[in-house]
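quick one, 317 residues, struct below
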Amino acid sequence: MCQQRMEQKNGSSFTGFILLGFSDRPQLELVLFVVLLIFYLFTLLGNTTIIALSHLDPHLQTPMYFFLSNLSFLDLCYTTSTVPQLLVHLRGADKSISFGGCVVQLFVALGLGSTECILLGVMAFDRYAAICRPLHYTVVMHPRLCALMASASWVIGFANSSLQTVLIFIVPRCGRNKIDHFFCEIPPLFKLACVDTTVYESEMFFVSVMILLIPVALITFSYGRIVRAVLRIKSSAGQRKAFGTCGSHITVVSLFYGTAIYAYLQPSNNYSQDHGKFVSLFYTIVTPMVNPVIYTLRNKDVTGAMKKVLCRGHDSR
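---
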């Protein structure tokens, strides 16, 4: 049935794309639907909780939680840009997406992913200021500067997305419209090209390197200084506390950059479509879901704020 629908789309005046997704594994689609729906609901719940607590509890109205609430909002948007459509496609025969829908999806997903790259670098700088410049922290991380850095992350992220989206859609496709993926992403879109894409891929690779490696350099610098500062602390309890405030961020950085580098910084001839789909599933749904868990499990401030909000709600009854 699914194949017939695809053929009908190809034979008509349809000018969009067919997202093949996991249609070659129909026995997997129902399992994926159930698992992804559960993950998506937990993603919505976890990230919404972080945002709400950051605004409701005065103790969490600090630069660290300001950036964390930005990260949670970003993760909410990123997951929502791909997962609801994937859930519909997993349970239906029609796997199509309009040309405009594909452009918007790529633009939004790229913009949010690029913004997260930069925001994680900014969050590393915040941890550097908190640990290495504790007496000047409130001066260095002034609310106006925090707002400026967060805004710059979003502006640069979507400026990069605009450039890459234009580059990918000016590549001639000669009528090819079957995308072997579950959403519009750069590597599978390049597979549709009917011309040599070496120049285009080189340009995209250079831009991706800039967006990924500049924040990595900032993160490396920040944590290099943090490690040296922590090692100068004489008490082991003080060292554990200092490293504890950074552990969550390092874990999130490792998860995000590990998958992003696999997806975008490898030669196209080494790119495995099947592996790419499951890696994409990881950073579109798993990482946004576990980020709130990573930041709350060992964070006494967040768990304390959650208890206060729950107790307040219980007392109001």
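Confidence is low (pLDDT under 50) at residues 1-5, 7-13.
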